[in-house]
Amino acid sequence: MEQIGEILISEERIKERVTELGAQISRDYKEKDLVAIGILRGGVMFMSDLIKEIKIPLSIDFMAVSSYGMSTKSSGIVRILKDLDDDIEGKDVLIIEDIVDTGLTLHYLMDYLKSRHPRSVKVCSFLDKPSRRKIEVPIDYLGFEIPDKFVVGYGLDYAQKYRNLPYVSVLSEEDL
Ligand code: IMP
Ligand code: MG
Fold this sequence. Notes:
The protein is an alpha/beta fold.
């Protein structure tokens, strides 16, 4: 069995950072037409906390993509499981992701969303694991940079478990 190890990012630190990001996004998007696009399922907890800290009008939409299955290693194959509900033409899109690891998912998503002619596309990711990057992607707003460890909690899962932890924890090595 896999086990929860050390707490990497506490609930308090997450709250603080999310509040800062919300304030920054509120300033940057004042004159814009913001659509926050949450990436299911991992981005959901971050998104729901973040949008409460964004103090300007916005709309939300969701996409679900799959690149991993049950494994912790990236296959590089991205499949759209759920597409946007609304048109984003002329809108200022902010992608809300849980983590950028190899960058393959985000690279694909950015291309896909740009093809729908929004006015702008930017990225807000809760976590960044830069040591594993395979393809360069811009992260405009970042919660935390983390080392090359498999983490769970605050939306992130291992085999669909642990998403409900209110903090970020490292999963013990032996089963990965
Ligand atoms: P990428 O395409 O390799 O950047 O992978 C991004 C996706 O992989 C994320 O949206 C997560 O769902 C998943 N992922 C990558 N690293 C971790 C991790 O440490 N814990 C949980 N999920 C992860
Ligand atoms: Mg995931």
